[in-house]
Every structure is written in structure tokens, then in C-alpha cells.
Amino acid sequence: MLKIGLTGGIGSGKSLVARIFEVLGIAVYYADTAAKAIMNNDEILKAGIIRHFGTESYTNGLLNRKYIASKVFGNEDQLALLNSLVHPATIRDAEKWMLQQSAPYTIKEAALIFESGSQEHLDYVIGVYAPKNLRILRTMQRDNVSRDEVLKRMKNQINEEIKMRLCDFVIYNDEQKAILPQVLALHEQLLTIVKRTLHEPQSHSHTAHI
């Protein structure tokens, strides 16, 4: 089974692309959603968070999100520390989840695949690209937040152009090209790779712009 990453900057539309893959019968692991559960259920991770951020980090055994947010908001060092605790736990959970699936390939949807080092555990990575101004507008409308707030969130992610160059495949969600035909074409390409690797494992291809 191939393990595929799916990433893109905030407002790129990666969740939409993930849902299309799900309709095609591909199991998708949503890293952000999973991380929230893991922070409540992984005892080793909970101990690490309490050790670094204090006992106020949890209330009645559940993560005190407001408190943690107050600790990391606007503090790059504290955010990096939190991520250094959460990312390895999420990577382990995703690995375990993927091995339990029966689809020809599985997808891990995450904003910070390269930032977290998750790409080392994946066979290929798909990038979803949209221009910065369009991503800002989408996020402002979706989350009802200011432009400045969106820009602050973007600071935690690597440059979008660099990220796309690191991906093996790129899907464009720029309102110029339809997404569905791109996803369908990539799905067929990945199924072909799966069939090929059953007989003779191949090295990664270069970036393909669908």
C-alpha cells in the first residue's frame, strides 16, 4: 500500500481535495483532527505537555485549549516546542492507522507535512496550490477573521512556492482549472503506480503538475 501525503497552505483547499479522494474510496487521515484527539488520549504526550506548559494544560483530563493557545499565540519558540511534542505522536498514530487500511493507497492530509518531517514516512506528497491573495480571502471568509490574523497563521508555514516544489504532484485550486478532473487523473496515476509497485518497486517520480 502506498502512503500519500496531502498538503497545502491555509486556504488552499486541501480538505476539499481530500473529500474528493474519500468519495473515490480512498481512506484519508486528517492530521489536525487526529492531533486534537491524541492530545487528550496519548498519556506520554499529555505528560510532556504538562511538563513543559504546566498542570493548567489539562482540566479534568482534557486539554485546556484556551490556556495552551495563550501560551503559544505570538510566541514562535513556545509554538515550536508544542509542535515538537505533538508532531511525533501524530506521525506514529498516522503510521498505525495507515497500516490498518485496505485501500490501494491511503492519504494523510496535513498542513505541516514538510515542517513536521512527516514526508520521511510517506511514499509521495500531493500539494494543493492556490495564489496567496486567494488563500487569504478564502480563509477570511471561512473563519470570519481579519487579514492580519490570516497572515499570522501563514507565518507558521513554509513558503507556498517552496512547498509545491517539494511535492511529487501538484493540484491547482486557483479558480482557473477545475479540481475534479485533476483529482481523477491523479487517482488513476496513483492506482497505476500501486499496480506497478506490486511487481517491481520504483523510486519516486519527479514533481508532476496535474
What features would you describe in this structure?
The chain is of the alpha/beta class. The protein has two domains: 1-27 and 104-210, Rossmann fold (3-Layer(aba) Sandwich); 32-100, no CATH class. The chain contains ten helices and eight strands. Helix 10 links the parallel strand 7 and strand 8 (208-209). The longest helix has 24 residues, at 76-99. It is globular and about 50 Å long.
Order of strands across the biggest sheet?
Answer: 2-5-1-6-7-8
For the report, how would you describe the main beta sheet?
A: 6 strands, parallel
Count all strands and give the number: 8
The helical percent reads 55-70%
Q: How many helical stretches?
A: 10
Beta-sheet strand percentage?
A: 5-15%
User: CATH homologous superfamily of the largest domain - what is it?
Assistant: P-loop containing nucleotide triphosphate hydrolases
| Assembly status | single chain
User: Which fold name fills CATH's third level, the topology of the largest domain?
Assistant: Rossmann fold
Key phrases:
210 residues, alpha/beta, two-stranded antiparallel sheet, Rossmann fold, single chain, 2 domains
Ordered list of secondary-structure elements with their pairings:
Elements: E1 2-7, H1 14-23, E2 28-30, H2 31-41, H3 43-53, E3 58-59, E4 62-63, H4 65-72, H5 76-99, E5 105-109, H6 113-116, E6 124-129, H7 132-143, H8 147-154, H9 160-166, E7 169-172, H10 179-199, E8 208-209
Parallel strand pairs: 1-5, 1-6, 2-5, 6-7, 7-8
Antiparallel strand pairs: 3-4
Briefly, what is this?
This protein has 210 residues and is α/β, with parallel strands linked by helices. It has ten helices and eight strands.
